[in-house]
Amino acid sequence: MKINSAVFVKGIVRWDDFDLPVLPQVAFIGRSNVGKSSLINHLLNRKKLVKTSGTPGKTQMLNFFLINDSFYLVDLPGYGFAAPKGVRQAWREMIYGYLVNSPDLNLILQLVDIRHEPSKEDKAFTQSLMDAELPFKIVANKSDKLGKNQIAKQSSLIKKILKQTEMPIAHSSMSSQGKAELMTLLEKAIV
Ligand code: GTP
Ligand code: MG
């Protein structure tokens, strides 16, 4: 797929504030700092379309990017950073409200850090995606940080811990590992 246009259209904090033209959506979720915004830039071959940061908690809204005038990529705020209880509750309502009320959301990519065993929050999030029978795929991100053997070992561990039947897609926005596979998934999801 050739990316002809990629523009930020809107950031919303409530799923029912969505008032954009109805088009297929693909959303990115995962722990804060796992590389969601970087992954979107990487897939689109845009360096700075989406703001990235070394400071967790950079993305705070549901940010919609319109691609080729035909689908949206949705950058979601990450979970797992230190925040007061009320903020976490607001996050949950915003994210789950969006996930379960978006009939055009055709694919959710849940990113986990390939270097670590999935966290309690990663596990809980995967479990809720399964419980809600939402279409999702696990991405084991930052694979450039590991060697080949470690990538295989950690991928198996992530698969097991998250109770998946398929291996996660090992990906890196630095080395481009896994990019082609993700683009294929994306293309299937937006028709
Ligand atoms: P929030 O918006 O806070 O939820 O974070 P995010 O998941 O959008 O992460 P972001 O894309 O802002 O990246 C966080 C940090 O990880 C930045 O310093 C990136 O440069 C770095 N990073 C992102 N992807 C990769 C990757 O594939 N490999 C490596 N080594 N670093 C990465
Ligand atoms: Mg972000």
Mind sketching the topology for me?
Layout: E1 6-12, E2 25-30, H1 36-43, E3 62-67, E4 71-75, H2 85-100, E5 105-113, H3 120-131, E6 136-141, H4 148-161, E7 169-171, H5 179-189
Parallel strand pairs: 2-4, 2-5, 5-6, 6-7
Antiparallel strand pairs: 1-3, 3-4
The chain binds guanosine-5'-triphosphate (GTP) and magnesium ion.
Guanosine-5'-triphosphate binds next to α1.
Can I get a quick summary?
The protein is of the alpha/beta class and 191 residues long. The chain has five helices and seven strands.
List keywords for this structure.
191 residues; alpha/beta; seven-stranded mixed beta sheet; 5 helices; 7 strands; 32% helix; 22% strand; globular; binds guanosine-5'-triphosphate; binds magnesium ion
The biggest beta sheet is recorded as: 7 strands, mixed
**Count of DSSP E strands?**
7
Mean pLDDT: 93
| Count of discrete alpha- or pi-helical segments spanning 4 or more residues | 5
Distance between the termini: 12 Å
Give the percentage of residues in beta strands. 15-25%
Which residues sit in consecutive blocks of at least 5 with pLDDT less than 50? none
Query: In which order are the strands of the major sheet placed?
Result: 1-3-4-2-5-6-7
Derived from helix and strand composition plus strand pairing, the structural class reads: alpha/beta
Oligomerization status of the protein chains: single chain
The ligands bound in this entry are: guanosine-5'-triphosphate, magnesium ion
